[in-house]
């Protein structure tokens, strides 16, 4: 919850800080903080699993909070846009380490049968806090101004998160080691990151389908993060209304996962991923084609975007957990989360370029088209993973032989 709240600090206010306080006229420059955040978080995700296996999950979690400590101060009092970019570099590192560990530690704790439930609870806490914090910062900004008051709550988040990580949370790596011993009698050597990267990104069809869906899903979030405040302000929606639009997307996304996480355990991963992508397409249609007045379109579209994301998010994480062997699962999750979170940067860059050429609304249209294509890729390429446990023994034997060779 606290990790997610740190991202929520930026959802409503920071794009407006760029345009109104620093008078930045270029959409690409305004969205550069999202690009910086997405790229840094993606690469940190990539190495977080390796670090977790080497130094323990708890130590990586604590280091994530240490990187996050300066962020609210830079956002509140940074004298120039470069200071905002620095805050987002640090936030990307913090999120890549801390959020990755909350995912890995819950997967370690619950085992394979409740993986969807665990991911639903984790992401519900995180993205519920994203939405509530976005709403709160919108109200604070409308009452006190864009800076510094909306960022005071980030100071509390970082201090509480660090203290909990140091004093309360215990490491979970031994649970993964136990599961690895129980899964079969074949000893699977731990492969290097290069092998896991290729296996997760391209060679394994399920992991490829999951990775590209994760990228496009967060492309939507990166696009909306930068575009929605500017789009709806220009349409006459007030700052409080923008706060509600920015809040409802991650709140529905977060709370919905309490339901969709267990559903992914019962119905399977693939149906939730495919239909979740298609529901997001409908959200883009509602916002992009202006079926309602601006505030209503923003709220209805954000509900659909949040619902679709709630369907795919825990299912995607659980599908990686199903497919990857525990010996290299943390690294595979890191690779998946690399591709997923590079979507922030891709979405923000796409939105900046398209908005500069054709207008903000066209960024919404392009994101919707890419989401439709991504859902079709999952429909055609992915096989269900939840019932593949018996096949994993043979697969892991082959994997062991491949790694050794």
TrEMBL record:
Keyword Ribonucleoprotein carried by entry: no
Record localization: Cell membrane
Keywords carried by this UniProt record: Cell membrane, Membrane, Transmembrane, Transmembrane helix, Transport
TM segment ranges: 28-48, 60-77, 83-103, 124-145, 151-169, 272-292, 298-321, 366-382
Cellular component, GO annotation: plasma membrane
Domain of life: Bacteria
Pfam family of the protein (one): MFS_1
Protein name from the UniProt record: MFS transporter
Species per Swiss-Prot/TrEMBL record: Chitinophaga flava
Taxonomy of the source species: Bacteria, Pseudomonadati, Bacteroidota, Chitinophagia, Chitinophagales
């Amino acid at each position: 919850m606290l990790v997610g709240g740190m991202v929520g600090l930026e959802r409503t206010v920071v794009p407006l800080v760029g345009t109104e306080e620093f008078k930045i006229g270029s959409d690409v420059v305004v969205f550069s903080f999202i690009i910086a955040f997405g790229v840094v978080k993606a690469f940190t995700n990539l190495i977080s699993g390796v670090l977790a296996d080497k130094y323990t999950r708890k130590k990586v979690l604590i280091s994530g909070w240490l990187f996050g400590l300066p962020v609210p101060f830079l956002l509140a009092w940074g004298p120039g846009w470069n200071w905002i970019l620095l805050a987002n570099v640090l936030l990307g590192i913090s999120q890549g380490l801390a959020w990755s560990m909350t995912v890995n530690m819950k997967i370690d704790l619950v085992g394979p049968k409740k993986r969807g439930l665990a991911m639903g609870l984790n992401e519900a806490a995180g993205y519920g806090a994203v939405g509530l914090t976005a709403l709160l910062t919108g109200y604070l900004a409308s009452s006190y101004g864009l800076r510094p008051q909306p960022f005071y709550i980030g100071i509390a988040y970082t201090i509480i998160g660090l203290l909990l990580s140091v004093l309360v949370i215990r490491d979970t790596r031994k649970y993964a080691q136990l599961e690895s011993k129980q899964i079969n009698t074949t000893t699977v050597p731990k492969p290097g990151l290069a092998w896991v990267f290729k296996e997760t990104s391209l060679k394994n069809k399920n992991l490829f389908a999951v990775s590209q869906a994760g990228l496009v899903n967060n492309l939507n979030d990166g696009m909306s993060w930068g575009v929605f405040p500017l789009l709806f302000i220009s349409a006459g929606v007030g700052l409080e209304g923008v706060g509600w639009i920015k809040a409802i997307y991650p709140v529905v996304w977060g709370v919905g996962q309490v339901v969709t996480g267990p559903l992914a355990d019962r119905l399977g991963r693939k149906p939730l991923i495919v239909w979740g992508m298609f529901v997001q397409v409908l959200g883009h249609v509602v916002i992009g084609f202006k079926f309602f007045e601006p505030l209503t379109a923003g709220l209805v579209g954000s509900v659909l975007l949040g619902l679709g994301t709630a369907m795919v998010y825990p299912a995607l994480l659980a599908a990686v957990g199903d497919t990857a062997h525990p010996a290299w699962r943390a690294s595979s999750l890191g690779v998946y989360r690399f591709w997923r979170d590079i979507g922030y940067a891709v979405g923000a860059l796409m939105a900046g370029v398209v908005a500069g050429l054709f207008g903000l609304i066209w960024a919404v249209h392009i994101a919707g088209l890419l989401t439709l294509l991504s859902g079709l890729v999952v429909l055609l390429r992915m096989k269900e993973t939840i019932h593949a446990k018996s096949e994993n023994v043979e697969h892991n034997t082959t994997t062991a032989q491949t790694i050794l060779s």
